[in-house]
Amino acid sequence: MDRSWMNARRISEEYEKGVSVFLQYVKENAKSVNGTYFCPCVRCANQIRQDLGNLHDHLFMFGITKSYTVWTWHGKILDQPMMSQGTNYVEEWMIDHLEDMIRDVGENNFLRANLYDSIINDSEQPLYPGCTNFTRLSATLKLFSLKARNGWTDKSFTELLELLKEMLPENNTLPIRNNEAKKVLCPMGLEYQKIHACPNDCVLYIKEFASLKHCPTCGLSHFKKKRDKNTEEGNDGAPGRKCDNLLRHPADSPQWKKIDETFPEFGADPRNLRLALATDGMNPYGNLSSKHSSWPIMLMIYNLSPLLWMKRKYVMFSMMISGPKQPGNDIDVYLKPLIDDLKLLWEEGVEVFDSDVEDNFRLRAMLFCTINDFPAYGNLSGYSVKGHFACPICEENTSYVQLKHGQKTVYTRHQKFLPRNHPYHRLKKTFNGSAEDEVVCRPRNGEEV
């Protein structure tokens, strides 16, 4: 079928006739869902379904995706020679493209990856003993094709593989996870090397330039400057954080710097851990009528990059407080084992092997902060977060208005936390009927608390 109209102007007669032919093809071959079909326009990109009328309008308003030359979303069935011809097709394809693959990847990498043997073995290995319709490779290809066509997530695809693994006979060779299935189709694992370059594109720091601290052409430093707060000169070192008085990391906060000043021995070793503790109560059964309560206690490592703090593999699941009721203010009793471990890490530390320098060192850790909502804050700190003295920051209690029958306490006069020239200070009717001209109280220090 001629598809040259796809590149024609949308106001041309050729494009108009091509759209008519395409819509007729869709109507005869594509499978509809409540009279709708995938729209191949530039905006929808075969991800959104439209009825034929809207599909027609979209093709003229936005144009068709010009790279969509094989209409697989609208009834075109691709040939599946790998399924029907089995291992013969795979062997023929490998022979035809082997030289191209070796040239693109490199002979050493190709041999080291054992790519040819891996694909051939998977194409010959039956899906389960006695299976003649599918091999390990063909079944994985078929499932990945379904995943791509239907937009399955990696998580849902993994769950499907796990279910199929249980449903198939024993000793089946179906991959059990999404990553494992990818390795069947892409067994090539190539190594890479990270190379520093001069910001002015003068040289790469390799070979004779690898040990240089300054560019031999322009004289620019190989490394980023680490400036202290008292001098303008920086020390050369590995690429690190910017020191421009912006808060990009907890290490830029006054609290972090105060700890380094107060405990210089702890702060001198960047390997010592600053931990954040997060917790909250949850109902594991999702039933509000159930009184069972669970409090997971998580620890995050703030020494890491902000991109890694909340990644699952870097979060330490240290405790689970579970029972028929919430621990409330008695949560400190259940936290005793964790507190003992934290005291040990702070006071004595533990011997840890540093693989980078290949030597042992004494690791210490401290609890840098906690992450929780206001009610959980009250349980962890022991401070009252209810009633007339709920604010843990101000010296004075927040003003309040008690409604009829004493059923509700409403906290007012919070405009004092806004800038002095903020218009909310003068809004009377919107709040409690009076202007707000109070000043924020000084936060209490640790001794006062």
TrEMBL record:
Task: Name the segments for region: Disordered.
Answer: 226-245
Superkingdom as given in the UniProt entry:
Eukaryota
* Residue ranges of every copy of the Transposase-associated domain listed in the record: 3-75
Per its UniProt record, what InterPro entries does this chain match?
Answer: Transpos_assoc, Transposase_21
Q: What is this protein called?
A: Transposase-associated domain-containing protein
